[in-house]
Amino acid sequence: MTEEDRSRIRELKVRELNYALYLFFSNKLVAAGTVIVLLFIGLAIFGRLVVGSSEPYKLDLKNAIKPPSSEHPFGTDDLGRDILRLVVLGAGYDMAVSIFVVTASSTIGMVLGAVSGYLGGKFDEAFMRFVDILFAFPGLILAMAVSMILGKSLFNLAISLISVWWTGYARLMRGQVLAEKEKLYVRAVKSLGLPGYRVLFKHILPNAIYPLLVSATMDIGGVMLSAAGLSFIGLGPTPFEPEWGSLVNRGAPYLFVAPWVMFFPGLMILLASLGFNLVGDGLRDILDPRLRR
Amino acid sequence: MKLYEYVIRRLTLLIFVLVGVTLLTFFFSRVLLDPLAAYVTERTNPRMIPAIRRMHGLDRPIWEQYFFYLRDLFTLDLGWSKVGHMDMIDAIAAHFPATAELTILAIIITLIVGIPLGIVSALKNNQLADHASRIFSLIGISIPVFWLGLSLQYFFTYWVKAAYGIPALPSTGRYDAVLAINTGFKKITGFILLDALIQGNLVMAGDALAHLILPAITLAFLNIGVITRLTRSSMLEVLRQDYITMAKSYGLPQRLIIYKYALKNALIPVVSVTGLMFGGLLGGAIMTESIFAFPGMGWLSYRAIVYNDSNTVLAYVAITAIIYVIVNLIVDIFYAWLDPRIKY
After folding, report:
1. Which DSSP state fits A253?
2. Does pLDDT of B81 surpass 70?
3. How far is CA A16 from CA A20, A204, A289, in A?
4. Do A229 and B20 touch (CB under 8 A)?
């Protein structure tokens, strides 16, 4: 490959990237999604600096279940805690859990699926049957069982979601690697005598990873909903961690007296997962050339 | 491969998957957790514990216990449900009709709303109606079920009455027990709506429907978005095909082309996804049922979680997985039969 070829390839890559970026930001829904996601990430990182993270569970029973006012814009809960403050503190938990779950499960799924597809044979067969078995459970229900066994905590909740979620990525990655490993360039690098792991991780993986990245981005919103849902039914954090799902759960008994207690945390879950889903939806449109028109 | 060969291959695979599923639930319930917990309370005499262990075969080698576990699953002897205060299988049998009723109604609502929205979206591709339906379905997949359920409950069982005096919908349960006694209602199948209609008890049927409607809407809302997007993309795919162009060139009316020729083929993937949804929902919608205190399988397992009754949770997991696998199989076979182009 001459220097000229290289610069030509670079130029094509840049043009493709620019085109993709242009498509990405020319779509209003995607732009809105990006703004929402950035806002929530900002809220998760800097929010606690503004509201102060000390004593999020300080009681103020005189001010219990007060409706939204200028002093408490989102009202107060049954313990007199300011809901706006809890919601801001909760952003960190929800964002961290969903991003952690998606990152961990896509990494696990990527490595296992790629190795399984590359090795093929008996190992691949056995591995895929194992994945089939995990797929036989309706998703959340298996996560529920795992979380129940591990014990109720936010970390175990994340582990249980990972234990369910990685299988989809493993299947996806295996299919990609199977399609990729027969191509000419793979045979070429193999003939150079490179060890298997280098062929797989250095040459095949970069070409096979995009569908997995898209799928992972699109899943963040769904994972956030699942995590909040499990935590709503009581498998999540302790009462001292203001995770949004558990805040909704705390508000549920006061539904007819103080609907704002459950309303605002739930609204946050809706907005955050909507943001991720808008971005994911747009990403899929851009990367699927058939829809580019 | 012929269809029957495919069916046989799938059935063989089914046995394999079922063995795997039972191994996994067995591992959860007997290895990671102590199944003795279901039979011991704080008032059990500690000296009785070895005897209780022996009685339920829990002192046997672990592989022997697995065969007992399988036998118990086959004979539907799943042990004792603490939260149900009855044998597990009775608890499940008592809660299953509620879930089935709710699932069927939710699926009907999903299809009635989702498919027309999808068609409109495909026909008005990239116009206002398409964008609106896109936003609607994105909200549908982004909304937390439990929050939607609570909000609907607030508005339709409290707010409409408080603000406008419109008769409110009931917020919890399956039927009004007082009404049932007054109208002489009797349970036959466990499906309240069906039972009421069989007995010609229209008051009771209306009451059952009023109890069902909010949970069903909650459940349907999530799936409407999925069905709308699927119908849209599959309709767009079909409309691009040659036979549609040919039908157009013959000058056939637009309505005929869309509803007679295009829709049939466009709905094939929708049928398959609806089947999967059905299988997933039959296991019970834990959040929806717990919010509306709707006594189905989901509600049972929700209470089992709250009260740390792992025996019930795992029996529930095993049963739902088995239902799910079997429904998936039926859907796949039906799909293969429906669409002869599919190679298996």
Report:
1. G
2. yes
3. 6, 21, 12
4. no
Residues in chain A: 293
CA B65 to chain CA centroid, nearest Å: 31
Confidence label for A54 from pLDDT (cuts 50, 70 and 90): low
Please state, in angstroms and rounded to a whole number, the distance separating the CA atoms of residues A221 and A199. 34
By Cβ distance, the residue of A133, A252, A256 closest to B21 is A133
What is the C-alpha to C-alpha distance for residues A153 and B333, in angstroms, rounded to an integer?
41
Contact A141 B139 (CB under 8 A): no
In order, the DSSP letters of B221-268 are HHHHHHHHHHHHHHHHHHHTSHHHHHHHHTT--HHHIIIIIIHHHHTH
In whole angstroms, what separates CA A100 from the centre of its chain? 7
Tokens 């690697």 -> residue: A177
State pLDDT tens for residues B207-257: 888 899 999 999 998 889 889 989 988 998 888 888 888 888 888 888 888
Residue/partner pairs of A180-186 with CB below 8 Å, 24 or more apart: A180/A204, A180/A207, A180/A208, A181/A117, A181/A118
Determine whether the interchain pair A248/B146 forms a contact, defined as Cβ–Cβ distance below 8 Å.
yes
Contacts of A190 (CB under 8 A, 6+ apart): A199
Evaluated on CA atoms B312, B318, B321, B327, the torsion sign reads negative
ipTM: 0.85
Number of CB pairs, chain A paired with chain B, less than 8 A apart: 131
Among chain B residues, the shortest Cα distance to A132 is held by B17
CA separation for the pair A204, A174 (Å, rounded): 11
